[in-house]
Amino acid sequence: MTTRIAAILLPLLLLAGWEGYCRWSGIPALVLPPPSAVGAALWSGLASGRLLPHLAVTAAEMALGLGIGCLVGFVAGVALAEVAGLRRLLYPYVIASQVVPKLALAPLFILWFGFGMTSTVAITALICFFPLLENTLTGLDRVDPAKRELFRMLRAGRWRTLTRLKIPSGLPVILAGLRVAVVLALVGAVVGEFIGGRQGLGASIIAAQGMMDTPLMFALFAVITALGMLVYQATLLIERWLLSRQAKG
Amino acid sequence: MPTDPPAFLSFENVRFDYSGAAIVDGVDWAVGRGAIHCLLGRSGCGKTTLLKLAAGLFTPATGRVRLDGAAVCGPGDAVGFVFQAPTLLEWLTVLDNVLLPVTLHRRATADDRARALDLLELVGLAGLADRGPRALSGGQQSRVALARALIADPALLLLDEPFAALDALTREELQEDLLRLCAQRGTTALFVTHDIAEAVYLGDRVAVMADGQLRHSLSIDLPRPRPRDLRYDPRFNALCRELRHAMDGATGLRRAEAAE
Ligand SMILES: Nc1ncnc2c1ncn2[C@@H]1O[C@H](COP(=O)(O)OP(=O)(O)OP(=O)(O)O)[C@@H](O)[C@H]1O
Ligand SMILES: [Mg+2]
Q1: Which bin fits B38, alpha (ψ -120 to 50), beta or left (φ > 0)?
Q2: Nearest Cα to B172, choosing from B94, B234, B229?
Q3: Which of the two ends of chain A, N or C, has the fewest CB atoms closer than 10 A to its terminal CB?
Q4: How high is the ipTM of this complex?
Q5: What percent of chain B is modeled with pLDDT above 70?
Q6: With an 8 Å Cβ cutoff, are B104 and A149 in contact?
Q7: Where in chain A are the domains?
């Protein structure tokens, strides 16, 4: 109960402190706007409907990038885990590509796909691809050898062993990869828009910066954070649902 | 060399190693159709390895394992294996675990489900069909594994200490059930255990293994079906004592070899 109260009080205290600091220190709103000004900017953006199309664009880019990246990452992970030769051949590249800062490829993607949604989706997909690939590979590898022997004894073919043993037993690890991908997807979408977007929350931040509208920038941060939390919580729910369904059989 | 023809399962001078010293070292053995043979021996002497050779999970380095006349070269559908650890799939219910050998090859029918429920009842888990394996005790898990091995009605059952995690009462009940089932279906069984009385109660023949070799074997001439109070019969106790001496002898031999 006390933690409950503290959980409500803490953000209120922080906001009050922030507001108080801005009022009494006389810091210019251009550098640090008070929360009241941010709230006002947020409200006018939402009420006038100006923010909504941008929110929709970013959410769509994120969803598309996440979907494509995760699907391809999962399939590639399964392929590498199942085909030993492929894995020996490609795994060094997978490791090398881990350390490449994927966002640094954004200018190249703009060159290939042009400004706009396509290049942002491509960047987001690329970023989501790796955690899924990595975790699928690890998850499928980490099957209890005793269970493998059981499946061998039961003469389960390769496909059955994959779908009935390896994927179910690796599911927790694979879903942990999905959670990482979700967080990265938002980063990918927003930063992709910084560089190559015409629309979206990231592009709006750049535009607000150009107009020196700091309260609007803060308002956009708030919207992005809310979007991220929403999607993250949804992922947790999906994860819990999948695992509990699995636990029940 | 034991001979009880016609042999259903036979080992012919089987040798096996895990890339090191021989773990199974020249085993000759034959199990007649419908017979139950028990294997005793100290921990680490190679009993599990021998069972896996019989199952076709391992291939002998030299020699041959034959099942019903044909050389074994991989796991077959006539063989049921109860592993030393229960090895249940946590994401399936108890019932689906029992049905696994069926559902891996075809869709389970209402008939299969009824049989699985019967088997669960036989092993005393009738009420737990919808639970997950994590919600079972160790002994309950090993009984699920036994039911799973029986669902496909195998002609040969390989059992690796299936009752080791059970209390004495449940164990004796299951021994009786196992004997009844094997007699009903004419199942041949090779049963590994550490419990001398269990080996004598179940087996037509008991072999003592030490250092990868079968050092001693004893034919158990007790009536079938075996009544429950056979366990208190003087003949039963005499056989147990004889096996105990044989095991001491086998180990003594190992000590003598080590001293050489
Ligand atoms: N995968 C393996 N790789 C290498 N050595 C192994 C392997 N499995 C078993 N061994 C060795 O082979 C020997 C026989 O093992 P096995 O499992 O057959 O013994 P066991 O008679 O079944 O013992 P227990 O009664 O304890 O189950 C042991 O000394 C063990 O250390
Ligand atoms: Mg063993």
Answers
A1: beta
A2: B229
A3: N
A4: 0.89
A5: 94
A6: no
A7: 37-248
Quickly count: other Cβ atoms within 10 Å of residue B41's Cβ.
Answer: 25
Shortest Cα–Cα distance, B161 to chain A (Å): 16
Cβ atoms of B191 and B199 closer than 8 Å: yes
Confidence check: pLDDT of A247 > 70 = no
Q: Which of A146, A152, A165 sits opposite B75 (nearest CB)?
A: A152
- Average pLDDT (B133-143) is 89
Q: Nearest-CA residue of chain B relative to A245? A: B91
> Across the interface, which of A154, A169, A171 has its CB nearest the CB of B104?
A154
State which of B19, B23, B43 you would mutate to test the pocket of ligand 1, scoring each by most atoms of that ligand within 8 A of its C-beta: B23
Alpha-helical (H) ranges within B21-133 are 47-55, 94-103, 110-122
- Which of A210, A209, A211, A189 shows the shortest CA–CA distance to A200? A189
Tell me the C-alpha distance between B216 and B207, whole Å. Answer: 6
Each residue's pLDDT tens digit, A31-70: 888 888 899 999 998 889 888 999 999 999 999 999 999 9
Domain boundary assignment for chain B:
88-153
Ligand number nearest to the C-alpha of B209: 1
- CATH 1.10.3720.10 is the classification of domain A37-248: yes
Closest CA relative to residue B102, chosen from B113, B92, B88? B113
Judged against a pLDDT cut of 60, whether residue A202 lies above it is answered with yes
Kindly list the protein residues whose Cβ atom lies closer than 6 A to any atom of ligand 1: B 18, 23, 41, 43-49, 84
Ligand 1 atom nearest the C-alpha of B49 is: 18
CA angle at B98 for the pair B93 and B104, rounded to the nearest 5°:
95
Phi, psi of A72 (to 5 degrees): -65, -40
Query: Which DSSP category does A166 fall into?
Result: I
Residue B96: both structure tokens together: 């689906």
- Say which residues have a Cβ less than 8 Å from residue A143's Cβ, sequence separation at least 6: A165, A166, A169, A170
Alpha helices in chain B (DSSP H): 47-55, 94-103, 110-122, 138-150, 168-185, 196-202, 234-259
Q: Do A146 and B87 touch (CB under 8 A)?
A: yes
Among B48, B79, B87, B92, the residue to mutate for chain A (most A Cβ within 10 A): B87
C-alpha to C-alpha distances, A12 to A21, A76, A230, nearest whole angstrom: 14, 46, 21
Backbone angles phi, psi at B41, to 5 degrees: 165, 155
DSSP SS3 for B85: coil
